[in-house]
Design a protein that fits this description.
- The chain is mainly beta and 382 residues long.
- The protein contains two helices and 29 strands.
Length: 382
């Protein structure tokens, strides 16, 4: 075929193809692109992606809130059977004051804003404020069944653990006026902690062997977790990475591990008879477990997820509730059945001091401690 004829045929074919295609659409102006944001350097993106979460990052030695940094260090010990609070000078390890309280003081709890310590008078049905500046108690506030006390992460509510009434009471965090009550499907609600994002409160129910996960903003119970009838879950602590809850169980003689996302039990660590209180070290590496029925303190490694040490009280004892000193070098615990307070070295595990106090010492509070705000109990800070 000759070249001119071939070109003529190809041109005709092109016209035919164009005429069979869809009709042309009207032209429209393209939208103006959004301004480009500079991408972070590669090393910044990598480090941000791998940066570990530590919910206790603000609890390091010396990281005091401006509201607490100038306070005189004291240790406040509620004596449940004596109906008193003893005040100890942690520098001399001596009781310097004793104050009369109402019936059955259980815990001394720092407020969310760090300005008040609340003595939970369980049978007395009241909360007594202590001014941490002076160390002296003020006028009691009527509150029904305050076994224990927590605060929501945003500071909007005080959460009273009404243990014998089987409910969680939402109160004004300053006046303690009742706002609403949430009945819980378990018996003996008493200790708890919050998820890393602060949205869910996981609480233990001592008398029914259960845990309850609570959406406190709605509020409603999301899930009930059984840890077997006859067991008695106690203190609750979130792991530094926010993935797991550790729950002391004084009848199971150890610590349950609960997934913080699914709220399912994933493991158990045997620590000792009467496992009761849980306290995080200042470097976020260890969890101290007071074994009240054995006179010991077990040390759990968060990284290895196992018991790595055990401290013993010579001659036995009943270590219960307390807290870590501000510098992280000491662990203070009440001796529930011995009328004393124990002071351990967190570096050696040795018992440094035994201090005589009133009868039935329970939830003692070491104050001040580092942290931006308090979630309650004897000192859970974030």
């Amino acid at each position: 075929m000759r070249l001119p004829r071939m070109l003529s045929m190809l041109g005709a074919l092109s016209i035919a193809v164009i005429s069979c295609s869809a009709p042309a659409q009207p032209m429209m102006a393209a939208p103006e692109p959004a301004p480009q944001q500079p991408a972070p350097p590669q090393h910044a993106r990598t480090s941000a992606h791998k940066a570990p979460v530590d919910v206790y990052a603000h609890d390091r030695p010396g990281m005091f809130s401006p509201k607490a940094k100038d306070l005189t260090p004291r240790v406040y010990v509620p004596n449940s059977e004596s109906d008193t609070v003893d005040v100890i000078d942690p520098r001399t390890f001596r009781v310097v004051h004793r104050y009369r309280m109402g019936s059955l003081p259980q815990h001394v709890v720092p407020s969310w804003d760090l300005r008040t310590l609340w003595v939970n008078e369980n049978k007395g049905n009241r909360l007594t404020p202590i001014d941490p500046v002076t160390g002296r108690p003020g006028k009691p506030v009527p509150v029904e069944d305050p076994y224990n006390l927590y605060f929501t992460p945003d500071g909007s509510y005080a959460l009273v653990m009404a243990e014998r009434l089987n409910r969680l009471d939402f109160r004004d965090p300053h006046t303690m006026r009742l706002i609403r009550s949430l009945p819980v499907p378990c018996r003996g609600i008493n200790h708890g902690d919050f998820t890393a994002d602060g949205s869910v409160f996981l609480a233990s129910c001592e008398f029914s062997g259960q845990m309850v996960a609570i959406d406190w903003k709605r509020p409603r119970v999301l899930k009930t977790i059984d840890v077997h009838a006859g067991n008695m879950p106690q203190d609750v602590k979130l792991s530094p990475d926010g993935r797991l809850f550790y729950v002391a169980d004084m009848m199971a003689d150890g610590v349950w591990i609960i997934d913080a996302r699914t709220f399912r039990r994933t493991g158990f660590l045997h620590t000792g008879k009467g496992a009761h209180g849980l306290y995080v070290s200042r470097d976020s590496r260890s969890l101290y477990v007071s074994n009240r029925g054995q006179g010991t303190v077990s040390v759990i490694s968060f990284g290895r997820r196992k018991v790595v040490d055990r401290w013993r009280i010579p001659g036995g004892g009943s270590p219960d509730m307390g807290g870590v000193s501000a510098d992280g070098k000491q662990l203070w615990l009440s001796g529930r059945y011995h009328g004393v307070v124990y002071v351990f070295s967190t570096e050696t595990g040795k018992l440094l001091h035994t201090i005589k106090v009133g009868r039935g010492p329970h939830g003692l509070c070491v104050y001040p401690q580092p942290g931006r705000y308090s979630l309650g109990h004897t000192g859970v800070f974030r």
